[in-house]
Amino acid sequence: MKLGYQTNTWGGVVGHPAGVTSVKDSYYLAYGSTEEALKDISEAGYDGFEIFDGNLMEYKDKKDEFLKLMNEHSLTLVGVYTGGNFIFPDILEEELIKIESVASFASEVGAEHLVIGGGAVRANGILESDYTALGNALNKVVEIAEKYHLVASYHPHLGTNVQAPEQLDKLMPLTKINLCPDTAHIEAGGGDPVAVIRKYVDRIKYVHFKDYANGDFLPLGEGHQKFDEMVKALEAANYDGWITVELDSYPDPKQGAKISRSYLNQFDKVNQA
Length: 273
Hints:
This protein has ten helices and twelve strands. The longest helix has 20 residues, at 89-108. The radius of gyration is 17 Å and the shape is globular. The protein has helices at 34-43, 53-57, 63-72, 89-108, 129-147, 165-171, 183-188, 193-200, 227-236, 253-264, and strands at 2-6, 13-15, 28-30, 48-52, 76-84, 113-118, 151-154, 178-179, 207-209, 211-213, 216-218, 242-245. Helix 5 (129-147) links the parallel strand 6 and strand 7. Strands 8-7-6-5-4-1-12-9 form an eight-stranded parallel β-sheet. Strands 2-3 form a two-stranded antiparallel ribbon. It has a two-stranded antiparallel sheet with strand order 10-11. Pfam families: AP_endonuc_2.
């Protein structure tokens, strides 16, 4: 298993301001320095990184600069995180066009994974039909990803219509997309991340680790998540892909990355390509 880290800790999670009015610019964005993030991630001992679509697309016209930056720090672009509302048919085509533009550029700069978050919650509550709409939209995302030789995975997330375990169980039979379990979001949504990994391990091609306790997302080892059981479940399924540590915010991003990297040293098969 190989180790990556998400750049969103540097600057925190925000959104692209143009996305308020234009779906084509409705990117996830961290306001920190990508250059600083990659330097720190490399120095903390990781081999790869994941990045928000908005931060990646800032390099759309500076491709050589981005490739040079990765090369300088000996890092692999593991994946890019993107998403959409997915349940509103009037804007779905626009959302998919945006996702395809992200997938195309991500492929050009060597990404392996396309991570998808989303599934809107309506003002008047979730409809059962929203899960079918989301599943169908995610199938279209899979087709886009395959066009650019990327592995698409759905990422359950707080604030979407797939945050609770029963919601995930509604979605998964309705779509062919892989699952990227975010262990802390699963627990925060009322689920057991170990049970989710065991249940869907045949559809897991990529994993997000973050720790959790008392409503807070934490560096690995500082919460109560059972990462030893998760790693065992992945090993039993011969998982040999990337584990990316994601921590939405931390006062000292580099120190947070180092804490998690030190914690992962206990697992023999982690960080073995």
